[in-house]
Amino acid sequence: MGIVELLGLAGSVSLLSGWRLYLTVFVTGLAMRLQWISLPENLQMLDALANPWVLGISAVGALAEFFADKILWLDSIWDTIHTVIRPIGGALLALAVVDSSDPAWQVVIFLLGGGAALMSHGAKAGARAIVNTSPEPVSNAVVSTGEDIATGGLLVLAFANPIAALAIASILLILCLFLVYKGFRLWRKIVSSGN
What is the pLDDT of residue 179? Predict the structure, then answer.
């Protein structure tokens, strides 16, 4: 894999970790365990994801997240708890993708991966908080299911075609920045109208 493919894979996995960390870890580990994907030598560090303990814990986490994310307001509590966990997970997954021989490159990827996961997590949490204000209960489950499907599909794409994944990760990052900006403006408007 060249640098562009590695950046595409690292960026995609980091962004998806901000949405669904446990699902990202589980699907990646399962795909490796069942040999649906074969990793190049520089990514052999990710073999730890195929460990039965890692698969089991990430499966339980993915299942818990699947249900918690469908319940009004419980999803916001879950997102609050994971504000630290998802960015660290995204940073570590991105770090596992790069060449471990260059410490400067490791730090850059760790920061970018964590930043991307934090940005996508912030956009997701903000959007879900807005969805929670909807009077009908269906929109929360619909948005959550859409996130589940998008995460799984984009993860498969990231392993099948890292360059396409880089393009999609770039678009998602721009969308996340836009959503965070809109959420911040809405929050400022609410706070200023309260004074």
Answer: 77
